[in-house]
Amino acid sequence: MSLVNYIDAAQQYFDDLVIKATDDELFAGGYLRGHYDLAVGYAEVEKLTISIDELNETVEQSLVKAYRNGELNEEDKTLVARLWDEVKALA
C-alpha cells in the first residue's frame, strides 16, 4: 500500500467512527486523529518523503510524549492504543 492510500484509509477510518463509535471511542478517535493529522501535516509542510513505518513512528512518539505528560487516564490510553492498532492494521 502506498503512503497516500494509507493516509486516505486512515482518514476514512476516523470519519467512520462518527457513525458507529461510542462516546468514549469518539473521544479517543478524535484524540488519535489529532496526533495522526499533525504527523501527516508536518510531513507535508516539510515536504518529507516518508514511509508508512516512519509516519507511524512519528505518531507513536507523539502519543508517548502525551502519555508522559499525563494527558490521558489509563482507560483512555487503552482505548487510544486499541484504535491505533486498528489504524496501523489498515496498512
TrEMBL record:
Q: Name one Pfam family in it.
A: YfcL
Q: What is this protein called?
A: YfcL family protein
Which lineage do the record's taxonomy fields give for this organism?
Bacteria, Pseudomonadati, Pseudomonadota, Gammaproteobacteria, Alteromonadales
